[in-house]
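Async update (no meeting this week)

Hi team, since we skipped the sync, here's where things stand on the single-chain job. The sequence we agreed to prioritize is pasted below, unchanged from the tracker. I ran it this morning and attached the output directly underneath so nobody has to dig for it. Comments welcome in thread, and please keep replies under the output.
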Amino acid sequence: MLLSCMFTAPLLAIKYPRIAEQKGIDMTVRKVVIPAAGYGTRFLPITKAIPKEMIPLLNQPALQNIVEECNASGLHHINFIMNKDKPEIRKFFTSDFTFRSRVQKSGKGNLIEGIEKIISHSQFTYIKQPEMLGLGHAIMMAQPYIEKEMFGVALPDMVVFDTQPCMKPLVEAAQKHEAIVVAVMEVPMEEISSYGCIKIGAQLDDNLMEITDIIEKPKQQEAFSNLAILGRYVFTPAIFDAIEATAPHTSGEIQLTDAIALLARQGHKVLAYKVTGNVFDLGRPQGWLAANIFLGMQSKEFGAAVRELVKELI
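Output:
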């Protein structure tokens, strides 16, 4: 599941001017925040030794897919929110001359071209989150590194396979409409209670609409729609003020959904972009297995064999 707390926290009223009226806001989206501080308890015991973000999708860690998506969307300054127990992430995204030379001499340099391209085209910042106090708190850790810029957020638990990188249309819509943009997906109504659910305002085009409110994990009869938040966002710096104005839940966690809802209710332009690709929740073992099966069936190298095997197993 994307978020774990019910939407019950009281919200403090604050007013926001339009982005164009805020002095010094950089409208070009270059930075992305990737929260990667969780412990991945659903994947124990493997996450005792391997960060859940590094569990593989075929032959590369899931986190590489997220960073590739961000790079392809024009986001090359990657801000990881980390805990102290994940040195493997920093090592993976650091160039190692000795390792690279050895692999190239073995004639297998093509196998590391993808990660070497990411390293050469990205700037990485590793930001510590001392306590796990919710997604809103994790995003707040990045405030000193974002300052007065628009920025993206990509949750590594969710992967999207589509004809275009998932973050790209969000970035374009955010810059065009001077707005916060949240990715959503259609889910069956019987599953909406597992997600944050949006209330739709004006429809701007087939895939883009205004958000007027959000309810977290509603009962089916209380849901605003069948559109669920899936873990991709583009924010203005106003999100930091909204997070600060959001009361923690009884668990002590500060939820990002609460802050977004506050902005929408206070008249800040908040839009939803409906994603139509194949979405997999890597936060759950069954989602991770499904993503690997999907990629295996799509693979040029393994696809025919995997499809035949799946057919036989079924």
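Quick observations from my side:
The chain has one domain: 19-283.
The first strand starts at residue 26 and ends at 35.
Reply here if anything looks off.
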